[in-house]
Amino acid sequence: MTLYCGIDLHANNSVISVTDDHDCVQYEQRLPNDLTTITESLYPFRSELLACVVESTYNWYWLVDGLMDAGFDVRLAHTGAIPQYTGIKHSNDESDARHLAHLLRLGILPEGYIQPREHRAVRDLLRRRMLLVRQRTLHHLSLQSLIARHTGERLSANQIKALDNEAIANKLAEPIRLGGQITLAAKCWLDRAIGKLELELQKHLIPCQNYQLLNSIPGVGAILASTIALETGPIQRFSSPGHYASYARCVSTEKISNGKIKGRGNKKNGNKYLAWAFMEAAHYSAIWSPEIKRFYQKRKAKRHILVAKKTVANKLARACFHMLSKQVPFEVKRAFG
User: Fold this and answer.
1) 3-106 — its CATH code?
2) Residue 109 · residue 100 · CB < 8 Å
């Protein structure tokens, strides 16, 4: 008899449901998030289990790795693509776990990609850097608008970077002066923290062919190349350039009927970190490559600036698909010719 296991994972507990070929429950229990307790509860069924399905929540690393180390076949459920229940009035954690096992039995379980554990720490460190960069930009813009609001002086980005406490004291009066100085201190701390993260990343980034290929794109350095490579994973996951560009959130989400926009699809479906990386790549490549800059300026003359940048990002995403699939460097004429 073949058995199927669904695990509804939460912050501090998990609901485990083991079902058979007729969806009859053979075992069901809510257990604390303790790896030893969970593996011991599943050991009696290991020889008959086809696989264990774990929800792709924010805290799945420890459970997936632990079950794999214990000899279980593990599948990561893509929660955003799981079909909703039809005709059911009541649901709970137990029914969710059974539903995962049911989809596994039918062979229609939408699966997420399980990143190799040796790459996850570096990828998460890159994501942490991205978070700090966004916070630094927030403090930068906050300080810029604060000075403009109180003095009428619009400082450039380089002028903001050159400010110190004395300059803030000369521009702002009490009591708002303290607010400006604290904002500047937070920005300076973030500068140092980002620098430390980048030094640590340099120790752990292992040069490979994909990094070198992505570095051939104008304006893409080590950080962006590493982010794109690690967030992408094996390019064979994607069947076409369009699917890859959609995963990177570089495609339109409009629903059009009879020439009219009737709504938008799930624009958040995809990898937000990859979307950020390609928008950054679009920004810098339009600076460093004359051909891409010319393409970008033509689009900007007709559409909104963000739409123009997204168009460049879409082109770069499609180019990256071909580069990683065929292991060839970037060719600007083929991508933007």
Assistant:
1) 3.30.420.40
2) yes
The residues with which 5 forms a beta bridge, in sequence order, are: 18, 52
Q: Is pLDDT above 80 for 188?
A: yes
pTM, entire model: 0.86
Which of these, 57, 45, 52, lies nearest to 68 by C-alpha position?
52
Residue 275: exposed, middle, or buried by beta-carbon count in 10 A (0-12, 13-18, 19+)? buried
Angle CA(288)–CA(290)–CA(291) in degrees, nearest 5? 120
pLDDT digits (tens, 9 = 90+) for 148-177: 999 999 999 999 999 999 999 999 998 999
pLDDT > 90 fraction of the chain, expressed in percent and rounded: 77
Q: Specify the DSSP element, H or E, that contains 32.
A: strand 25-32
Tally of CB atoms within 10 A around 177 = 16
Distances (CA, A) of 73 to 101, 114, 198: 13, 12, 36
